[in-house]
Every structure is written in structure tokens, then in C-alpha cells.
Write a structure and sequence with these properties.
With 151 residues, this protein is α+β, with helices and mostly antiparallel strands. It has two domains: 51 residues, no CATH class; 64 residues, no CATH class. It has a three-stranded mixed β-sheet. A two-stranded antiparallel ribbon has the order 4-5. A hairpin with a 2-residue loop joins strand 2 and strand 3. It is globular, with a radius of gyration of 16 Å. The termini are far apart.
């Protein structure tokens, strides 16, 4: 019932969509990409791996952290290949037109692309209608990008 009321309020223009949570910041004041997790590790180690402050690289208005220098160098050479498709946003939420922060522990690699999710069931839910979900999330990413803090 509460969700129906929120949807009705949004449609009526009485409430703004929820703002995404701010990504953690580094000592330099820049936002930390995917909460400091190593984006390359999803591809090379096949699991979520926290990065280390000693292996950082600045790209796309974020500071990215890596588990080791090799991962940092791989990312530097081709950041678009390794960065998550929707930055710090949950792919399922974006497909639904919502801006929700992703949890780096819940992820999926499909067709060489990394997708992050807010809940443990996110990857399975996203995969059920993979093509349409990717298309909706891409469309909504552009609409919601202005809501990201610091933009």
C-alpha cells in the first residue's frame, strides 16, 4: 500500500524520486568508485574484493581502488572494460527508474560487462529479462545521472 501511495505521489508531482546515497569520499574529496572494491577482481578473481588505498587511480570523477598494482594497471589501460555499467547504481533499480546505491558484493558479469546490485537476489532478477533490463537501465541512467551527488 505504501508503495502505491509513493508511486501516486510521484506521478502527481508531489514527491521527488529518492536521491541515491552518496558514494564514500577519499581524503582528496573525490568519490570512491564502488565503495573501494577492485573492479578488475570481478573479472580476474571472480569475486568481490576490496581494493587498497596504496593502489588507486582517478578516472571518471571517482577514485578507484585495486587489490594490487597489476589490477590497477589493467584498469588504467582500459577503464571502460572494467568499470561497472552504471557506476555506483543498482542495475535493477535503474531498470525500474529508481536511483539506488549498489552493494559491491552483489554482481553479475554478462557479455564482458560488470553490473552491480543492491540486494542478493538482484543478479537473478536482472538476468530473467536481461536484454530489456539492460536497455531500461541504460535509458534511466541518463535520466537519473543528474541526481548523483556532486553532479
Amino acid at each position: 500500500m505504501r508503495r502505491l501511495l509513493l508511486i501516486a505521489a510521484l506521478l502527481a508531482g508531489l514527491a521527488a524520486p529518492p536521491a541515491p546515497a552518496a558514494a564514500p569520499e577519499t581524503s582528496s574529496g573525490m568519490r570512491l568508485g564502488i565503495k573501494g572494491y577492485d573492479p578488475v577482481a570481478y573479472f580476474t578473481l571472480q569475486h568481490a574484493t576490496p581494493g587498497l588505498a596504496q593502489f588507486e587511480y582517478q578516472w571518471d570523477e571517482h577514485v578507484w581502488r585495486f587489490a594490487n598494482a597489476e589490477h590497477r594497471d589493467l584498469f588504467k589501460a582500459d577503464p571502460v572494460r572494467y568499470a561497472p555499467q552504471f557506476a555506483n547504481f543498482c542495475a535493477v533499480a535503474l531498470a525500474r527508474g529508481e536511483a539506488r546505491e549498489a552493494n559491491p558484493e552483489y554482481w553479475l558479469i554478462n557479455d564482458g560487462k560488470l553490473y552491480l546490485f543492491g540486494k542478493s537476489y538482484g543478479p537473478d532478477l536482472f538476468r530473467k529479462e536481461l536484454g530489456p533490463n539492460i536497455e531500461r537501465a541504460r535509458h534511466n541512467r541518463d535520466l537519473l545521472k543528474a541526481q548523483e551527488p556532486g553532479r
